[in-house]
Amino acid sequence: ASSERTVLKQQGFKIHVSAPAKGAELALRRVVPECVRAEVTFKVVADPVLLRFMNSKRYHRGGSGKFITIYPPDEESFRKLIEILREATRGLEGPYILSDKRYRDSKVVYYRYGGFQRMYNLLVDGTRRAGIHKPDGTFVQDSRMAFFQLPDWVQDPFPDEPESPEEDELLNGRYEVQESLSFTNTGGVYRALDHKTGRTVVIKEARPHTETWLGTELSIDSLTALQREHDNLQRLQGLPCVPELI
Known about the structure:
The chain is α+β, with helices and mostly antiparallel strands. Helix content is about 20%, strand content about 25%. The chain has a 5-stranded antiparallel sheet with strand order 2-3-1-5-4, with helices on one face. It has a 3-stranded antiparallel sheet with strand order 6-7-8, with no helix packed on it.
């Protein structure tokens, strides 16, 4: 949706709002009126099945969670609108958008710098790669990684306060994570050292508000799925083929 007076620029800071499928309607009711008032262009994942898929284990981590995408025309309107949306969505929760940075204490409002229009570079193998322009006009890739990353010529409009070093960087005061073994959108699997016993362990992660999607409307919340895995391993303890549950 867009206003007749709104011109979509090529690139800039965009705002994303995340939501689980069951909370999508409420998020729409909170966000859309503010976008209309601000006369900004925005788009919505309009199909609940598609939103479940985007929040699922099968979806790529760099694009997951982006239920509503908003394109402010300049940085001033971006700063104003993102604060309005933070207030409008208080109390709502959604998946963490890994490619973005969370805005302040919001659980659903995120932002990143990237292309507004579809700008592609045609590669020699016939595939197209999304990109943005550097200030000198050079066309570079618009990477959607599973972590927040700004182009080297762009400054973060909301830089973090310097953090004091943590006294204890161990997970749960016990586990030293040493490497990742695998990643999916619902969470990673990590190898860690248990400082309490000296043993090497495997830690499994479940990201809140992501789903193990089984098609159409069938899905299992990732936290529930991991709890079920835990419970089944507990029942099977003692068998030589089953890992010890910690």
